[in-house]
Amino acid sequence: MDWTPLTDSLAGLAPFLIYVGLSLGLIAIYAAIYMLATAHDELGQIKRNNPAAAIAFAGSLIGYTLPLAVAAQHSATLLVFLVWGVVAIVVQVVIYWFFRLLMLRDVSARIDRGEVAAGILLGAASLAGGIVDAAAMAV
What we know:
Blueprint: H1 4-10, H2 13-37, H3 42-47, H4 51-74, H5 78-102, H6 107-112, H7 116-137
């Protein structure tokens, strides 16, 4: 039996584990920074079963992980990956603030009140920004 395909495949296990570990760390850092940047308490609202907060936060997390995945795929080094991961954090926080300033100034108050439409709109803005961010990173 030829074990070469298996051993060749497992040769990529260490880089895989490193990128997954760094990605999980970046996602945790992103979540902490995003929760500090917003004017509403995502986790507190989610614990109180507020669907608007859950939808907005889920959209934000997915909006962040899309460019993070592209960065992992296209980065030549771990340092480049980390830099793009930080750039994606900044982009998502800026999306929230632009959304709040330009579209719905009271979005956080609406989310606190459980207004699902506000949560969907903010989540969609985060997703849209993440898709554009990911596409721009792949250029």
